[in-house]
Specification:
By secondary structure, this protein is α/β, with parallel strands linked by helices. It has six helices and five strands. The longest helix has 21 residues, at about 155-175. α1 packs parallel to α2 (about 65-75), α2 crosses α5 (about 135-155) and α5 packs antiparallel against α6. Strands 4-3-2-1-5 form a five-stranded mixed β-sheet, sandwiched between helices. It has a domain at about 10-130: Transcription Regulator spoIIAA, CATH 3.30.750.24.
Length: about 180
């Protein structure tokens, strides 16, 4: 069930060499940078062999979030000892992935295996909230730009959908960057 206040929320825990991340509310540009940073830390530190993203409480996703997921999936494909999977995806969220072609690169399931569900349920006492840092506007713009470039790489039709967004974000990165 989605959180009562519909806040976009991201929590994580480590259980049995698995990083379990739970999305509550919307998977959005607000939580994308902290999710990306956390997963990159998991990969760099080799602290888990599997990354599960529990989507059971996710009520929707924006293009930035889906682009970040696709980028992370590409990154993990270069690491054969790590698996990356979305579980408990709703039909609505599956359709969103399909619309942008993200389903082609991200491993996902509409349910979870018994073992995966035990890991999700086992994280309750161990969860930590991953806070979003809104102070670094340049980092947020770079993350959003990279996500939309990834979407355009996955499916050329996405370039037309996001052409103006890409141009706006490129200008933001130039403006916010070191002068």
């Amino acid at each position: 069930m989605a959180s009562a206040n519909h806040q976009d929320n991201l929590t994580a825990a480590f259980i049995d060499q698995t990083a379990v991340i739970r999305i509550e509310g919307r998977g959005s540009f607000k939580i994308s940078p902290s999710m990306k940073q956390f997963i990159h830390q998991v990969i760099q530190s080799n602290s888990a062999h599997r990354i599960l993203i529990d989507m059971s409480d996710c009520i929707g996703m924006d293009s930035t979030f889906m682009g970040v997921l696709a980028g992370l999936a590409y990154h993990v494909k270069d690491k054969p000892d790590i698996t990356f999977k979305l579980i408990n995806l709703s039909n609505k969220n599956q359709k969103l992935l399909i619309t942008l072609g993200v389903d082609r690169v991200v491993d996902y399931s509409l349910s979870s295996t018994g073992e995966e569900q035990k890991l999700v349920e086992g994280q309750e006492g161990e969860r930590q909230t991953l806070e979003s840092d809104f102070s670094d506007k340049l980092d947020a713009a770079k993350t959003t730009l990279e996500a939309h470039k990834t979407l355009a790489d996955i499916n050329p039709e996405n370039y037309d959908k996001f052409k103006s967004v890409l141009e706006l974000l490129q200008n933001d990165v130039r403006t916010l960057g070191p002068q």
